[in-house]
Structure formats: C-alpha cells, structure tokens
Amino acid sequence: MAGELKDNRGRGIGEWSFPPVHPEGRRFGLLALAIALVVLFLVDWEFLGWPLLALTGGVFAFFRDPERVVPQGERLIVAPADGMVSLITKVAPPPELQGPDDQGRPGLGSEPVTRISIFMSVFDVHINRAPVGGTIRRIAYVPGRFLNADLDKASEENERQHILIEKADGAPVGFTQIAGLVARRIVPFVKPGDIVAAGQRVGLIRFGSRVDVYLPIGTDPKVLPGQRMIAGETVLAEIGAIALIEGVAQ
C-alpha cells in the first residue's frame, strides 16, 4: 500500500520493540534475575528483592543490542559508540598505532591528528562498532588504571585496547576502547585479519567507558562536544573534508 510505514528491514508497520540482549550479557542478566528471585521468594526479603529485580532489568538493558542503519560512503567515518562527545582535541596517535607493523603496513604516524572522544554512561548502549570498513590490521591491549573515563588522561593511563583498520584504499583509521571507573573488562569480537564493514559490531566495554577515534590528517570533525552519538549511524567525519562547524543554541 502506498505510504505504508515499514521498519528498516521492510517488514510491516514500523513500531518500537525492546532491542535484543547481546549473548555476552545474557548470563549476567540471568544471574542477577536468579539472585533477585531467591532473595524475593525464598529468603522473603522484599525490601531487598524488589530493588534487585529492578537492577536485573538494568543489567539486561545495559547489554541491549539494537539494529542500526549505517550511512553508506567510502569516505565516511561513523561513530563507534553511543554516548556524548566529551572532547575533541589534537594529539599524537597512541604509540601502539604509530609505526608500521611487522609486515611494513603503515600505522597512523606520529604527527598530531584530531581525536574525538565519546563517553558512554551506564545508560548507553555499550556495543562498539567499526567506524570504517576494511581489514583489522592491529589490536593492541594495554593494561592500566580505572580512572573516570571522562578525564582526558584516561586515554594514556586507563586500561585500553587500540584497533587499527586498513581501508580498501590502504588508508589506516584507528580507534581506542577505554575502560572506565566502573568498567572492568574490554571484550573484543574481532581479531587481526578479520574483514569488517562500517558499523559492524567489534566489541563492548562493560559498565561505563569511552571510545577515542583518530581522524586521518586533513580531516575535520562534523560533530561538536556535547553532541549525542549513535553508534554505526552518526557521521563523525568525511575523510579529506576540511569544514569546521559551529554549534547553534536552540
């Protein structure tokens, strides 16, 4: 029927439904549910059981994994994480991503580039996605501290995992998953050599964290600090496009 609304898979009338829970989080949700039911019905501590049951819903919500519609364009860099842009600054890329690898494939170099930091609160979706399509060339895990991920120094001091993707044209794009104050584990879904599409799921960070994206030289951001990001959908930048933007208060 002309004008009929459809969802992003072309099925029926578009309507809201609770997103599926990622398999990585199901065991945490079921464990929390079991504890809540034991406390509520076996121990009969209602004052504690009901809050635990509410917490169970929060655990399932934390690991929700909604579908995303990824913008198409070879030069587009999309947000790898849900959350708020907490910082945009010029920095040298992480040492782990700077030089060529053992096969001579280039890294990001040592010249300062624009870094976009996206802070994820415990209320955001925590599935991280590839900012560009290409081949995973490098994954470097660095142990560290668990400072507030909203702090600038978290990029150098917190537990983190650097990922380098080589696009089809050979250009490298890097990003970093950073554990936060509450987060205690970075979970990868990919390994070196894997081919990923832009917006494809590549990992998650449990319970509050941050993701940094390093834009190629000669590329300006299309987002501003304080702006909300949707992983796999929001366009962070267009490679080679230099066009600074200004926010407008409304």
From TrEMBL:
Please list the cofactors this protein needs: pyruvate
Q: Where are the transmembrane segments?
A: 30-63
Q: Which InterPro entries match?
A: PS_Dcarbxylase, PSD-A
What domain of life does the UniProt record list for this protein's source? Bacteria
Q: How does it sit in the membrane?
A: Peripheral membrane protein
* Pathway the protein takes part in: Phospholipid metabolism; phosphatidylethanolamine biosynthesis; phosphatidylethanolamine from CDP-diacylglycerol: step 2/2
- In this chain's numbering, which residues are marked as the site (Cleavage (non-hydrolytic))? 208-209
Q: What does this protein do?
A: Catalyzes the formation of phosphatidylethanolamine (PtdEtn) from phosphatidylserine (PtdSer).
Any one Pfam family here would be: PS_Dcarbxylase
Query: Where is the protein found, in the record's own terms?
Result: Cell membrane
Q: What is a GO molecular function of this protein?
A: phosphatidylserine decarboxylase activity
* Residues found modified as Pyruvic acid (Ser): 209
Q: What is this protein called?
A: Phosphatidylserine decarboxylase proenzyme
Question: What binding details are noted for the cofactor?
Answer: Binds 1 pyruvoyl group covalently per subunit.
Write the record's keywords in alphabetical order, separated by commas. Answer: Cell membrane, Decarboxylase, Lipid biosynthesis, Lipid metabolism, Lyase, Membrane, Phospholipid biosynthesis, Phospholipid metabolism, Pyruvate, Transmembrane, Transmembrane helix, Zymogen
